[in-house]
């Protein structure tokens, strides 16, 4: 299979470039939105040690999003800051699961956030992220191979972190167990959106940018199956995508309000230095 | 110390004398060393207040973490607020060791915060309504903190001094991050410059208050004399405030900003900054939980603490099961 060493090479093939930018937006927007949701937890985590660790992870994820936006910048899609702060919601390619709020309330006022949801969403997402990154290590787009290797180094630590939380809470008090099961159900309803590579997925796989969706899904499901078995849980039917496929620009209204917050200051004067 | 008498056989007075000899000789006191209850209490008050201020201090800046204008600023402010939480954790660990012989722990610190017994710095009771405030906090509040914490580096209590060494190193980065935000806005358009000036106007009095009253006449109580005797600190509140003014007033002026105090000037004869004294009654109101944003911040902290109680219970039940 042909490899593309630089952005210039990728740009010579419009079909390749289209699938590549699509995937980069998926990767960037996933991390951008989940890092944002994580940062809303700042100062509210169950204990101070976790506040420090969680904010470190969110910072890493925001950094990963930045790396992908920079790759898009190289491909002529526009400035990384404009891509992250000025696109309209339907242009975002993140999975719906990652835009959903942490619970009820607002991060500044009466946040009634659900730690079980944070743990399950982050754990399952990080599992999927690692599987995708492993696949990207042999991507036909060489700059993406480099990014994937860099990101993987940090993701391995994130995975250990969330795995520990998941196991500790699922095997603990009755209340914790119940809350975790509720959170799993909630995450399950939308998780297929994380595993989807969207309408352009076939081209991505055919041109070797990332492996096909079915392979990624199988790996993820088999991993989650073993996690469930260890915890005495049962894998139900396949995960769903109840609120639509974010990879194709389908989103909930919560994305729009998230983007309003994220871009509140930048929008005042995007041309200015900040 | 009388070499022929074992330490544990000494009377309380002798122990106290020995302790003060160590203080006067510039020795560092460690967590397991004998110390007068008065010294222990002063330390707990000081360090718990410092630690909880770092944690409560994360809240006004947290408001601006998601809203930080660019990816670069988002990353920088995330790192900064994470550092502040880290400082809080480091300091609470130091305080916890001091509290252990009294049968107290972190839960007591949190409950003291919620009940208002444990105070936190006046600056963190203030509203931070714009991105300009995020800049002013990082530049000037952290700048003020560097001045008071650098003075404490030589503190007689070893564990506190060591924690401060690390904290000070990180605070320098914070102040640079703040200065960079301020510079970008000062060089920006009219709206950005106005936003910055408004933030400075909002924060100026709080910054002067940060160092505390000149003397106990201003508030009715002050621990600074005792803390100096124990060599927990080496300078007075006013000396620190003067250092702050010397360092920052010229820089603020150089940016073309106006300091909202027309009486502010450097008196060449006295070699002192003259400024309009803040209203120390207001200060007292603020630090006792009646500041503009005190109630909201405490509620946020208390609600989230209650909200995640089930998590801490789950973790401690596991710990018990493991034993």
TrEMBL record, chain A:
InterPro entries: Aromatic_CoA_ox/epox (IPR052703), Ferritin-like (IPR012347), Ferritin-like_SF (IPR009078), PaaA_PaaC (IPR007814), PaaC (IPR011882). GO terms for biological process: phenylacetate catabolic process. One of its GO terms (cellular component) is cytosol. Residues 234-254 are annotated as: Disordered. Pfam families: PaaA_PaaC (PF05138). Transmembrane segments: none annotated. This is Phenylacetate-CoA oxygenase subunit PaaI.
